[in-house]
Amino acid sequence: MSTPAILVRGGTVVNADREFSADVLCVGGKVAAVGATAAEQAPAGTFTLDAGGRYVMPGGIDPHTHMQLPFMGTVAADDFFSGTAAGLSGGTTSIIDFVIPDPKQPLLDAFRTWRGWAERSAADYGFHVAVTWWSEGVHADMGRLVKEEGVNSFKHFMAYKNAIMCDDETLVNSFRRALELGAMPTVHAENGELVYLLQQEVVKMGITGPEGHPLSRPPMVEGEAANRAIAIADVLGVPIYIVHVSCIESAEAIARARARGQRVYGEVLAGHLVIDDSVYRHPDFATAAAYVMSPPFRPRAQGHQEMLWRGLQSGQLHTTATDHCVFCAPQKAAGRASFTQIPNGCGGIEDRMAVLWDAGVNTGRLTPSEFVAVTSANCAKIFNIYPRKGCIVEGADADLVLWDAQATRTISVKAQKSKGDFNIFEGRQVRGVATHTLSRGALVYADGDLRATAGHGQYVKRPAFGPSFAAVARRAAELAPSAVQR
Ligand code: URP
Ligand code: ZN
Ligand code: ZN
Fold first, then answer.
1. Is pLDDT above 60 for 483?
2. Whole-prediction pTM
């Protein structure tokens, strides 16, 4: 059944470059017209949605989610339908999830498994594919994933020793292969050897509860890994994207590298911007364990949250995500005897946009256009799907969110659409609410009415050699003569 045309009338369109009053006509899942003539071009039977002066923004892209991820002996509770439906209710219309192969499983096999799971997705999706060991088969599969399957990014976990952690040899080989293929290497930056050692030491000291989690993963553990990954990328001349930057140490590593002209991109989680490590000292195990994720939430007095905000403001950090990876209380209970066994992960996909708007735009830290940059446009550019996604322009996918900047709501697990039994933003009052969401022209959320359908979401192929690859090639050419002189 084809989606009826929709005219979004009388809104303020916000793109990453500017905001302006305009009507937006959506036909056949695409933006057909933006501006004064949009109404005139509307075909017979077009449904009119009165934006009534609200903001009309590109649907959010969450570049970091883990739907139904098998991890730490259990499986994340939100599947591709429930997780993406929750996202739609908060204005997020696309996700990039992670394919994480079992040890030694061919990458392509794992990719097919995830593609199968994601067929139930209610929102559009793509995949980063994790490289967790190195072999000729991995080398070959990376090529097929990029050239045939529309994957243009690979993930490397520098933590989770004895599970999915990859060593430096794998990092070097995979980064080099990614460069050859025009794909973006991404890293979870934490030194897994240090985490492993500190976990044993903290437990030996008798600290076995969730308060031990941040003690075993201090900021420098993240800083070391970020610096190492950035250095490897610099030597090889490949751009790099650091996921969930949580602290000053890694934010500074990125800023330093960028000041040297290196193409380094940083992602920040909504949770890391507003939550601090005091949550791990909550007397109730279930509550403290619900916040266990890696990297952990950081001490406020040290200024980590402020640093992340400044990174987004200054353009040194680029995207915002959630790392949506939901484990319910019975699953978290696996770590009652030792925090090292608590499944790592928290939710947030339906609240990212509201938390970012409230704590970012309402405070004057971000302009509405900067909000669009860090919630969709930058991600679309870095992962080479711009302006199909992340921009309201003729020909783009009609992924839109109508945003009421004056409406308020109190975030609570009681109202959430996710299958999670906890909300890390519980009790937070936000001003700025998604009232309507359009996914490829279909009205999937309207004033509290979630109309998500399993299978509406489509797989988004992402072409190789995004804009940053042209930039690194130019920089390599510039540096070459001076390198010869040396
Ligand atoms: O704690 C987290 N972040 N769980 C999901 C896996 C990862 O590290 O991204
Ligand atoms: Zn991670
Ligand atoms: Zn993650």
1. no
2. 0.97
